[in-house]
Structure formats: structure tokens, C-alpha cells
Amino acid sequence: MGFESGNDEVLKKFRRPVSSKQLRQATEVLAQFGGKMVAPSFEMIVDNPFETTDQLYQTVDFLDQTPGPFTISLFSLQFMPGTALSEEVTDYSVVEQHMEKEYMFSYKPTALNNLISLFAIMKPPHWLVSFLKMRVAGREDSLSPVLKSILYKLMLLRRAINQARFADYSTFPSWVMLAWHTIRIKRDRLLRLGGASR
Fold first, then answer.
1. Which CATH class is domain 2-167?
2. How far apart are the first and last CA of the chain?
């Protein structure tokens, strides 16, 4: 689900026809089925020149108050030429810079982005979120590319485990699907041979 932000002003900037309160209501409905399906993924946008640090902290608070289980997909804002949002940027070099980024994994490894990406791995307890917010305060833009890479890999692992638990392989890479089916076919063949020899 494309939530984009936990801040109402940013949602209006993106012309999203919902409020953060409505998004929370949707998460509460999904949370009722938490043990019966793959954890939902909420897509969030960062690296937004129109978004303030305080608004990003409101997104952290939004995720902190959102019932689990869930994961997030973090994306860096990309400007598309000719769109209303890109035309609001007065410095076109900003638009060009955003256009050259990859679609996924391109978000800046800032301390605040890394804090948000923690929610892709786990629903941290409130005390931990509060502690990490204090640690990040004043250093929101400090860069930690190694931490970003570790968090990203942990997110992929968490999703793989979660999807395997519910036998949902719809978003796995094709090589994982192929390997899984090959192992399953060999296992079934061995089981049949074992049963035939009895």
C-alpha cells in the first residue's frame, strides 16, 4: 500500500486523497489478520525537498503508533518532468539529480532514513523508538551507508522468512522460485522412491 508519508501536509502535497488518520484505520483492519497472512508492506517516500525534518519525525511517530505486524518499502522521491510536483521545484538541477537515481535502494543513508527503515525489519517497541529518536536528534543528515546496507539486507531476509511462512512467493526473484521448485520436486521424487521400495 502506497502510504508515502505519515504527515497530512505531505500527503496533501502528493495529492493523496487520504489523511494519516484514514491510513491508520486501514492498518488497524489489516492488523486483525496479522497471524493469517503475509505482513502488509507500506510504501514510504523520503528524500523529499518539500518535507521538513519535523514532518519526517511525524512519519516515524506514525509508524511507531501503527499496529503490527507490517513491513515498509522505503523509496527516494523521484521527480518526473512535466508533473505538477516537479514544476514546483525552482532549481531544475534538483529534478535532474532525482531523475538519475535508481527506483529502489536509492534513498540517502541518512540517520533519519535509517531509523525509518528499521520498521521494515521489525516493529520496534516504543521505548526503543524514543531512544533512537534521541540518538538521531541533531544528526539527522549524518550518513551511514554501511548501516543502510545492513538494514536493507535484513529487510529482505525478514520478508523472505515471512513469505515462506505463508507459502507466498509472489514477490521472490525468479531464481529463488526456480530453486524452491527444484528442491521440492527432488524431495517429492525421493519420497515416492522411498515409498515404492517398501
1. alpha beta
2. 51
The runs of H, that is alpha helices, within 32-125 are: 53-65, 84-87, 92-99, 111-117
Residue 64 has pLDDT above 80, yes or no: yes
- Count CB-CB contacts under 10 A for residue 89: 14
Instruction: Give the tens place of pLDDT for each residue, 37-49.
Output: 888 989 999 998 8
Paired sense of beta strands 2-4 and 71-76, if any:
unpaired
Alpha-carbon separation of residue 7 from 111, 157, 177, 188 (angstroms): 19, 29, 37, 51
CB 37 within 8 A of CB 106: no
Neighbours of 27 (CB within 10 A): 19
Task: Indicate yes or no: pTM above 0.85.
Answer: no
Domain boundaries, given as residue ranges, for the chain: 2-167, 169-198
Q: Is the dihedral of CA 26, 133, 115, 15 positive or negative?
A: positive
Beta-carbon count within 10 A of 148 CB: 20
